[in-house]
């Protein structure tokens, strides 16, 4: 018997593995349905409709799907109240950021409202705990961030640590020397990623349609500096990476590992699901993998929260082969 947190794109889902009679390692989602609140009758978004349909096709993913439906509803409730930010952007500005590998969005430009931040943080933790995706010790540890007067300062450190990590050294600020989140910070990073998504994805709405985005060639997010944790293959066979923090998409070489820059194709394992809808790129240099939605085969656009849940079995398969997300 072993247990693990399985990286599920924008969110994490607690999984337990068990040995079957045949010795094969199966995945079982933890079920704790008794104390779930009744959701008010809101019209479904396309993502929620897709998740409900996925639950019918793959009932073994029901708990992960229900958790993501609740997370999506929470994020949507908060997001509609967040004003669109404004920041200067033209080809010269993007060119300068490209050269320095520096994310565009400064922390103070994020339209963060402390009351909404506190609310979305607390409710994210509640949802994750209800689905056994957050250990009690982690819950209590993260809760202290909310009790402290310095929640915004904690969030700023979290934001800047990733935003500055990839900046070329001579342009790096104080925050660039902050440590990357360690193994022990994994739960805090997951919760903050989910809680900040409504604010950061609002900022991504500004940059996403802009032509200047094409100037960016790095594997980290041009807006917030986050790592990609999903990708989409466009009908033109381009690969666009999707930021795990703000969900911005940007074009990147289709067969270069975004985590270690390995571009030796003999050291990248790429395979598709039997229906052709999803693809996995696994790097044999850094042992990390990235999942992608194949938009050439599909009738709908990529939906990162949906597709990350639909591909949970791929995460399990990749991890069993020694790769990490
Ligand atoms: Zn981002
Ligand atoms: Zn790699």
Set out the fold topology.
Elements: E1 2-8, E2 11-19, E3 25-29, H1 46-57, H2 62-79, H3 91-100, H4 114-130, H5 136-147, H6 151-165, H7 186-207, E4 228-233, E5 239-243, E6 249-252, E7 268-272, E8 278-283, E9 289-294, H8 304-310, H9 312-320
The structure holds zinc ion (ZN) (2 copies).
Residues 221, 223-224, 226, 243, 245-246, 248 line the site of one zinc ion.
Describe the 3D structure.
By secondary structure, the protein is α+β, with helices and mostly antiparallel strands. The protein has one domain (91-320): FdhE-like fold, CATH 3.90.1670. Helices cover 38% and strands 16% of the residues. Strands 6-5-4-9-8-7 form a six-stranded mixed sheet, with helices on one face. The chain has a three-stranded antiparallel sheet with strand order 1-2-3. A hairpin with a 5-residue loop joins strand 5 and strand 6 (249-252). 40% of the residues are buried. Mean pLDDT is 85; it is low at 1-36 and 176-183. The structure holds zinc ion (2 copies). Residues 257, 259-260, 262, 283, 285-286, 288 line the site of one zinc ion (ZN).
Give a summary of the structure in a few sentences.
The chain is α+β, with helices and mostly antiparallel strands and 325 residues long. Helices cover 38% and strands 16% of the residues.
């Amino acid at each position: 018997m072993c247990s693990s947190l399985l990286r599920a794109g924008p969110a994490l889902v607690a999984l337990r593995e068990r040995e079957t009679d045949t010795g094969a390692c199966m995945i079982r989602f933890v079920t704790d349905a008794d104390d779930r609140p009744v959701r008010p009758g809101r019209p479904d978004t396309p993502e929620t409709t897709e998740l409900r349909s996925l639950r019918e096709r793959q009932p073994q993913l029901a708990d992960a799907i229900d958790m993501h439906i609740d997370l999506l509803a929470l994020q949507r409730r908060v997001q509609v109240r967040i004003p669109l930010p404004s920041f200067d952007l033209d080809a010269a500005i993007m060119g300068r950021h490209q050269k320095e590998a520096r994310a565009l969005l400064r922390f103070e430009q994020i339209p963060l409202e402390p009351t909404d931040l506190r609310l979305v943080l607390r409710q994210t933790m509640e949802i994750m705990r209800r689905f056994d995706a957050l250990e009690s010790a982690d819950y209590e540890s993260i809760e202290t961030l909310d009790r402290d007067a310095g929640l915004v300062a904690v969030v700023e450190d979290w934001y800047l640590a990733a935003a500055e990590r990839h900046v070329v050294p001579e342009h790096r600020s104080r925050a660039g020397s902050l440590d990357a989140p360690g193994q022990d910070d994994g739960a805090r990073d997951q919760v903050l990623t989910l809680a900040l998504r409504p604010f950061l994805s609002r900022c991504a709405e500004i940059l996403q349609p802009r032509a200047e985005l094409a100037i960016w060639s790095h594997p980290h997010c041009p807006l917030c500096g986050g790592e990609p944790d999903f990708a989409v293959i466009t009908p033109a066979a381009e690969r666009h990476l999707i930021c795990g923090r703000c969900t911005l998409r940007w074009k990147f070489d289709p067969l270069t590992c975004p985590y270690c820059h390995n571009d030796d194709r003999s050291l990248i394992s790429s395979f598709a699901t039997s229906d052709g809808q999803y693809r996995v790129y696994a790097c044999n240099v850094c042992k990390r993998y990235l999942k992608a939605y194949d938009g050439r085969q599909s009738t709908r656009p990529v939906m990162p929260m949906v597709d990350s849940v639909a591909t949970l079995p791929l995460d399990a398969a990749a991890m069993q082969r020694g790769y990490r997300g």
